[in-house]
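queue> pop job 88
queue> type: inverse folding (structure -> sequence)
queue> payload:
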């Protein structure tokens, strides 16, 4: 090549990268045995739909070892005699403990309901009780 001849240009990358399959983030939703994917509800279906009920979530903090132990109890113990989800297991264990407390502390009667967010941490309750007792003296 002479000094006057320009070097060939490098090939240009495509304007858009090749289209790759988009990974699914959700399984297709099906209703009943039709095997057809669910479509968007019509206006009438949306109006007729009953409002969803809050299932009343309750959470607990555990160490990883405690959580592992709970999962093992579900998988290796509870499922031997019962069928159901992990949530069913947790609910049964908690309700069993609540029934025991009601028998021991409230003559077997259910306590009045406490709304979500109204449960106070024990230490905060103890501090409030001490302040109230000091104010009454």
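queue> result:
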């Amino acid at each position: 090549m002479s000094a006057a001849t320009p070097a060939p240009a490098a090939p240009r990358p495509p304007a858009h990268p090749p289209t790759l399959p988009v990974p699914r983030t959700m399984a297709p939703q099906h209703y009943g045995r039709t095997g057809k994917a669910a479509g968007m509800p019509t206006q009438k279906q949306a109006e007729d739909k009953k409002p969803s009920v809050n299932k009343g979530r309750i959470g607990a903090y555990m160490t990883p070892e405690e959580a592992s132990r709970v999962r093992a109890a579900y998988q290796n113990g509870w499922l031997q005699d019962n069928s159901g989800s992990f949530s069913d297991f947790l609910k049964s264990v908690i309700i069993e403990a609540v029934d025991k407390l009601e028998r021991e502390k409230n003559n077997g009667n259910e306590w009045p309901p406490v709304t979500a967010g109204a449960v106070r941490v024990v230490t905060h309750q103890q501090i409030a009780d001490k302040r109230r007792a000091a104010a009454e003296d």
